[in-house]
Amino acid sequence: MPVLTTDAESETGIPKSLSNEPPSETMEEIEHTCPQPRLTLTAPAPFADESSCQCQAPHEKLTVAQARLGTPVDRPVRVYADGIFDLFHSGHARALMQAKTLFPNSYLLVGVCSDDLTHKFKGFTVMNEAERYEALRHCRYVDEVIRDAPWTLTPEFLEKHKIDFVAHDDIPYSSAGSDDVYKHIKEAGMFVPTQRTEGISTSDIITRIVRDYDVYARRNLQRGYTAKELNVSFINEKKYRFQNQVDKMKEKVKNVEERSKEFVNRVEEKSHDLIQKWEEKSREFIGNFLELFGPDGAWEAHYELSPDWIQFSSFVVEPPWKVQPKQIGEPASPGPAAFAWVAHL
């Protein structure tokens, strides 16, 4: 989209391309060729020295209000955020997300300080500069990465990269002999604040590692790292390896106990099932027996008892051969019931 050259600014300093006044027909128009925000995430963000802004159109100064209203498509608001970004974590990503979404049409440049500057002003890092550069390139909110970024922003650096605004949390950042390295940026009206994410920082992560040093040293020894690589003494190496063996034995004992509990539980479940089934079958057996041989059972209803059968039923008290004669001198006759009783035996 065409914009006007610097001689076409209004009296208030606002470019007429962003004001309500119609542009003069005699004024020269120059197309912006600034790099556009990334629309695809199939490739990492480029480095600044690989895709520097070669736009010939003048870079008009914007106010925060103008940037929030929106700028032409070919003139994105160039927002700059810098840092060390060691052990890149969600707090870093959230800060960059805020910087990217400050304005409707933003192009986010991220400056990463080198190892030399960081070690000089802040201290040793876990990741080296190449690793930190590469981590930033793969953040979805980043459009461009500036390697070896300056510790303090100079007018020359801001002009070289055509930076409109600098995004950072509003807490005064004292470093390099200054109470606030962003003081001159704030005074120029180019500072836009972001919010820190509580509970997560590079220092917090390092503190966790130092606090649980023994745990991580044992973990890496178990994974094949040498004591020399971990900077562990001979005595500590033997101690850690012994602790690892003890932990393995504890784990085995724990597994055996769990299996034993599972086995006992299965046996108990099966025994309960067997007892329940036995009770059900016993009740069923008793019920069937009573239906067949009870006082009102099917057996009694099916057979009409004869006198001889009645006599047979009395064998429980007296066997048939002990039946007394009906008259004196008359031998006792066992009768058919006696034969039936003997046959039953």
Automatic annotation (TrEMBL):
Coiled-coil annotated residue ranges, if any: 239-266
Protein's pathway: Lipid metabolism; Phospholipid metabolism; phosphatidylcholine biosynthesis; phosphatidylcholine from phosphocholine: step 1/2
UniProt subcellular location: Endoplasmic reticulum
Any single Pfam family the record assigns to this protein: CTP_transf_like
An annotated GO cellular component: endoplasmic reticulum
Keyword Ubl conjugation: no
Example of a GO MF term: choline-phosphate cytidylyltransferase activity
UniProt keyword terms in alphabetical order: Coiled coil, Lipid biosynthesis, Lipid metabolism, Nucleotidyltransferase, Phospholipid biosynthesis, Phospholipid metabolism, Transferase
Segments for region (Disordered): 1-27
EC number of the protein: 2.7.7.15
UniProt xrefs under InterPro entries: CCT, Cyt_trans-like, Pcy1-like, Rossmann-like_a/b/a_fold
EC top class named in words: transferase
Domain Cytidyltransferase-like: 80-208
Reactions this protein catalyses: phosphocholine + CTP + H(+) = CDP-choline + diphosphate
Main location: endoplasmic reticulum
Protein family per UniProt: Belongs to the cytidylyltransferase family.
NCBIfam families cross-referenced by the UniProt entry: cyt_tran_rel (TIGR00125)
Function as written in the Swiss-Prot or TrEMBL entry: Catalyzes the key rate-limiting step in the CDP-choline pathway for phosphatidylcholine biosynthesis.
Subunit and partners: Homodimer.
Designated name of the protein: choline-phosphate cytidylyltransferase
Species this protein is from: Mus caroli
